[in-house]
Amino acid sequence: MRAMLPARLEAFLGRAGRLFIGGRFVDAEEGGRFAVLDPSTGDAIAEVARGTARDVARAVEAARRALDGAWGRTSPDARGRLLFRLAELMEDHAAELAALEALNVGKPILEAQMGDIPLAAQHFRYFAGWTTKLGGEVLPVSLPGEYLVYTRREPVGVVGAIVPWNFPLLIASWKLAPALAAGNAVVLKPSELTPLSALYLAELVEEAGFPPGAVNVVPGFGEEAGAALVEHPDVQKISFTGSVEVGREILRKAAGTFKRVTLELGGKSPNIIFEDADLTRAVRGALLGIFFNQGEVCAAGSRLFVPKAHLERILDGLTREAARIRQGSPLEPGTQMGPLVSREHMERVLGYIERGKAEGATLLLGGEPNREAGRGFYVKPTIFLAGDEHAISREEIFGPVLSVLPFERLEEVVERANRSPYGLAAGVWTQDVKKAIRVAHALKAGTVWINGYNLFDASSPWGGFKASGIGREMGRYALEHYTEVKSIWLNLA
Questions:
Q1: Which residues of the chain have pLDDT under 50?
Q2: Which residue segments constitute the domains of the chain, with CATH numbers given?
Q3: What residues act catalytically?
Q4: What's the CA gap between 41 and 102, in Å, rounded?
């Protein structure tokens, strides 16, 4: 498979593996390293420095120096030009970045080429346009006397960005782009499973000309580097994407230093097909909703609500089309579904499948490893006819496992869809616009897609209700989390 990699990526893999701190690639203070695996084979593809609390402290110090120095003095226009330049470099290196995401994450390279990389570059370009528009306002105060009162937006300071393994480059862009646009310095901690695209991005940051320390990348484990970043007193904000359990722990630890925290957490998203939907289109959308990126998506449409009147027809379409999904090497252009990210995660997903069968859900398709796809961590597309009470219908699996749930009435399905601790996203399929809007308004979710699924743009906010998180990524709403508002009073008397 390595023969399929672009030459520049082969060269990168030969030198990858050091931390990026203060504009330089350096070894970890304690000298530790860890192997990064190719999930399609289980083989090691690189060794990366294992950042610890000492390295986080170095990175935070470098970020603080950047804010007090060259980066803090960089004009809004110059910040914007640096972000534009980084977007251009990402597009120039799109082939390498897409291949790296396929190799390290296991996602089909076509998905990375068509989705992850263009959207990541779009984020830097979108937020580059905001650097010159983050202004304050003059306030008409009513206090007796004569005052000039105005507000200004200032960066919060050092931002700790902790990103997951399923979309490592894309989600890093969600955090880096608005943070840098607002003038903050960032310490980025990628997942220990998928740190390579963040390190490649660090090389592009250096080439773009960002001042040393504006961006720092410290790969490492959550209990070491991640915890140290959350607890560091000079980190003013944490932006985290990951599990509910870790998000809850971050909130607890951040309370000690009163850090700002934004969290994008899990989901168990409902995808609702109504009787009047275009069923062919809805079935395709449902398959995309659950099997895109192997189901390793926080917004995966893992609960598919289907009208009883069309249950057999929809089940036939789902199982027939899902059985045709091509699994194999993520670097092959024809692959539609790759391996799961690790052996541990594959075993977790298979455990849920066994639990679904044990609890009485009806297995319609898949439910086992796909040995024919390769010797990596492949699980076949899996479909159950299930009930709301089954664990596979309640708990986030983060894999290619779909629960099909029959319903009869609109009010019933909305209530059942909302009967979840999560509220990240939802899908609605109907040709009745009034019904679509009514249901979209009633669903407790941060994003509702109507007659589509997994639709994203840098301008549209992303985040969840309930246990799915706090705050928003993307769009102008994200900038609220990366700026402080200062009120200034001048007595003119």
A1: none
A2: 2-265+468-488 (3.40.605.10), 270-463 (3.40.309.10)
A3: 264, 298
A4: 12
